[in-house]
Amino acid sequence: MAEMYDFILTKLMPMIETYKIKNICDYGCGDGELLEKLNTQKKDLSLTGIDYFSKFGDKNPQNNKSDISYIDRESAEYEKLSELNKFDMVLSTFALHHFQYPIGELQLLTDLVKSGGYLVFVDLVFQTDNQAKIAKNISSYIEEMGLAIKGHYHRHHYTLEEVKDLIKAIPVEIVTAEEITNELTEEENNENIKIKLDRNSLIRKNLSKAPEHWKELWLPFFEQEKKIVEKRGYDMSSLLFFCLKRNKKNNI
Ligand SMILES: C[S@@+](CC[C@H](N)C(=O)[O-])C[C@H]1O[C@@H](n2cnc3c(N)ncnc32)[C@H](O)[C@@H]1O
């Protein structure tokens, strides 16, 4: 998703300058690609990434040589961090639809921010105005069903209004709440389609070795996903972008 992070940074950098942000926490930072890019573009920021790193294997960014601090979500260090609420900005990209208890998670995130500091959320958005976006939605529903049956969690993408409703539970005022478009070139779009189809092919290959009852249930979904994406494309260009300012008092 390299082009995605560059796009997000074009939105983020002016905010960092305007609000004189000195330290940022990326919550659900994954392998830290966005933080590493941020570190290269603006060397004087203090950066912290949080995720469930013990599950990451080779991609664990705690092994990176940069001066970014990566803190495991399940560590004692994380518990201390949440008591300090010290960050000027807490950022979370493409993680919102992974939160099974979104209100509790949003409250935890808010606790990490200084009073008067900023929360920034970016995620894919649920829209239905073209066939390739509908294909993206169908794919996320398939993911949601697959994980739910295994007792895990992944939600289909939120609409703008759904996220506005969720944030009523946290003490913030909205600075920006919008749908934004990352204008992808045909080449970038084709690359996203290829990544999706490669993932689909890997899942179908793994499913072919799964127990018969599981294969029988799941293979048709992924065969369907392949057909839909091949025919209609896969459009990841539309995003949700929220910038929220933390208030002093609690809304709840
Ligand atoms: C789709 S990935 C996005 C990673 C990265 N932010 C990016 O933009 O590429 C979602 C990440 O959120 C993390 N995540 C999910 N639930 C979380 C939670 N409750 N607390 C912290 N991280 C969480 C996952 O482990 C995963 O790395």
Mind explaining what this structure looks like?
By secondary structure, the chain is α/β, with parallel strands linked by helices. Helix content is 45%, strand content 21%. The chain has eight helices and seven strands. Strands 3-2-1-4-5-7-6 form a seven-stranded mixed β-sheet. 29% of the residues are buried. Bound molecules: S-adenosylmethionine. S-adenosylmethionine binds next to α2 and β2.
Keywords:
globular, alpha/beta, seven-stranded mixed sheet, 45% helix, 252 residues, binds S-adenosylmethionine, Rossmann fold
User: What's the architecture of the domain at 2-126 and 155-182 and 236-246, going by CATH?
Assistant: 3-Layer(aba) Sandwich
H/E topology pattern:
HEHEEHEHEHHEHHE
For the largest sheet, list the strands in their spatial order. Answer: 3-2-1-4-5-7-6
CATH superfamily of the domain at 2-126 and 155-182 and 236-246: Vaccinia Virus protein VP39
Oligomer: single chain
Termini separation (Å)? 37 Å
Q: Describe the biggest sheet? A: 7 strands, mixed
Total beta strands: 7
CATH domain class name of the domain at 2-126 and 155-182 and 236-246: Alpha Beta
Find the CATH topology of the domain at 2-126 and 155-182 and 236-246. Answer: Rossmann fold
**Which structural category fits the helices and strands?**
alpha/beta
Number of helices: 8
Mean pLDDT: 94
Helical amount? 40-55%
For the CA atoms, what is the radius of gyration? 19 Å
Shape: globular
Bound molecule kinds, no repeats: S-adenosylmethionine
Which residues form runs of ≥5 with pLDDT under 50? none
The fraction of residues in strands falls at 15-25%
